[in-house]
Specification:
With 517 residues, the chain is of the alpha+beta class. The protein is built from 17 helices and 6 strands. Helix 2 (22-45) packs antiparallel against helix 4 and helix 2 packs antiparallel against helix 13.
């Protein structure tokens, strides 16, 4: 093919991908605002515990200048501003300003590694492309008030194409990362996913209990096929094949939504996919009569230059920040002053190059933490949940996810004791901060309830409580208090792993019961 014809073909292909309908972009804006408000609501439920939760690895989720000692007032103010920006997106009020503010706040939040997941990355990328396209031309207060800034220039097309390629790449990259045999050829990945106590919903648990393994294997293959076909069809130069691919991916997300409790993840993916709905679909639905006018004028030159500079700067920061990260991991000296700051800045403006959502290897087991503590008044409680201790699975249907019962307590213990010691530190931090002196803990035992999936043919397997840590540590000559007559630990069959050969795929051995706290 001659170069001129190839250039014309690629140009027409890019123009086809860039033709995003204003009504679809309005759905993107409204959906992002709704998801952000939902996330803020979840965070607000545990905001008083956030400093202690985050203290595991990263400290407070704030810049150094905004970290009050033990106070969450600044954190609440920031989340309040975050909520106002999300509400502005939802209503389409000063859309460009709110989209930029939400991008910056979301970037700072993403730098907090322990309180984010992949849906936060999806939202950040969508907000990044929204800086170049106008999502306030339809169904917005901006449109109603005459504040229309619908620019038509190359950066609008770059933003639209970038969004389309980003969504397609998420799925294609995920398929590539799912190289574990649990996906292919074994096909047991969906069985593992729906067995997860923290993430599986009522329908998912019913499917594990009643469907044959062959049906669950078929669903694993089907999920891979839908991701691959949907991702490829999104890049088609023709609108109808793109809609077919979009429909496949939407059905996949709806299936995840009804079978699992993934909170905002399916909603985030459906939101960004709504931006790709072609205009003829809206016309078929009878929403074509009042379509907004097409954009005509290019944006001012200074805006085009600012967008170009920002995009180049973010790419450079990502490349250099990743290189500095490898140097930090290797404990080598920094190549220049300010290199650490570049690495931190990359954590804020991190462009994902690997989308490993539930890939490459789904877990072969799950578990949850249970703490059995004794207070100064003699009561026995689980300080994680604040309720009577139980080794039953946590209620992941409660808001949000049963408090701290499942979503914040998924790290399994390690042979060095780091994870369980951090959990113990959090329990003591929470107890000292929020418990009256007369009801504070005197002793507690921390258990990890381990549930293996293998062998699948013999499942489902009973939970295996394992003693991971005691506080305070055993002191020479000091007797721990005996268990209460009605203690949750009486009659519980405990298990233990060989600390010298820590392997979760091996079944733990039986251990003696606990007689004291």
């Amino acid at each position: 093919m001659p170069f001129r014809e190839l250039k014309a073909y690629l140009w027409n292909w890019a123009r086809a991908l860039a033709e995003l309908d204003p009504r679809s972009l309005a759905c993107l804006r409204i959906g992002l605002g709704a998801v952000l408000l939902y996330d803020i609501g979840l965070a607000w439920e545990v905001i008083d515990l956030w400093p202690g939760i985050q203290a595991y690895f990263d400290g407070m989720p704030l810049p150094a200048w905004a970290q009050p000692a033990g106070d969450v007032a600044t954190l609440k103010v920031l989340f309040g501003v975050y909520a106002l920006l999300a509400l502005g997106l939802l209503l389409g009020y000063r859309t460009r300003f709110c989209a930029l503010g939400a991008l910056l706040v979301t970037g700072v939040h993403r730098a907090v590694a322990q309180t984010v997941d992949f849906h936060d990355d999806v939202i950040f990328h969508a907000l990044l492309w929204m800086q170049m396209i106008d999502a306030g031309r339809c169904f917005s207060l901006d449109a109603r008030g005459g504040r229309r800034a619908a620019w038509s220039d190359r950066w609008s097309r770059v933003g639209a194409c970038g969004l389309v390629f980003n969504v397609a790449y998420i799925y294609l990259s995920t398929v590539y990362e799912k190289g574990d045999p649990a996906w292919w050829p074994d096909g047991r990945a969906v069985y593992y996913a729906l067995s997860d106590v923290a993430l599986s919903g009522p329908l998912g648990r019913w499917m594990v209990a009643h469907l044959p393994l062959a049906a669950l294997q078929f669903l694993s293959y089907q999920a891979l096929a839908m991701e691959l076909a949907g991702g490829l069809l999104l890049l088609s130069p023709w609108a109808r094949p793109r809609q077919v691919g979009l429909s496949l991916l939407m059905l996949l997300q709806l299936g995840l939504w009804v079978c699992m409790r993934l909170e905002s993840f399916p909603g985030s993916m459906l939101t960004v996919q709504m931006a790709l709905v072609p205009g003829w679909v809206w016309s078929r639905l009878g929403m074509g009569a009042r379509a907004p006018a097409r954009a005509s004028a290019p944006r001012p030159r200074w805006q085009r230059r600012l967008l170009a500079g920002a995009l180049v700067a973010i790419v450079v920061v990502n490349i250099e920040g990743r290189r500095i990260g490898h140097i930090i991991d290797d404990e080598e000296p920094m190549p220049y002053p300010g290199a650490v700051e570049v690495h931190r800045l990359r954590q804020v403006f991190n462009l994902q190059y690997r989308w490993t959502m539930y890939a490459p290897s789904p877990p072969a087991y799950n578990g949850w933490w249970v703490c059995v503590g004794r207070t100064r008044s003699g009561a026995e409680i689980d300080p994680i949940t604040g309720a009577v201790p139980t080794f039953a699975p946590p209620d992941n249907a409660a808001w949000p996810f049963g408090g701290l019962g499942s979503i914040y307590w998924f790290w399994e213990p390690d042979p060095e004791g780091y994870v369980q010691e951090e959990f113990a530190d959090f329990i003591l931090w929470q107890d000292a901060r929020y418990t009256a002196k007369a009801e504070r803990l005197t002793h507690f035992s921390l258990f990890y309830v381990y549930v293996p999936y293998e062998p699948v043919e013999e499942g489902p397997h009973a939970p295996m409580p394992m003693l991971a840590l005691r506080w305070p540590e055993q002191e020479q000559g000091v007797m721990r208090p005996l268990l209460r007559e009605d203690s949750a630990l009486r009659g519980v069959g405990l298990y233990e792993l060989d600390s010298e050969e820590w392997d979760w795929e091996e079944r733990p051995g039986r251990a003696s019961g606990v007689e004291t706290y």
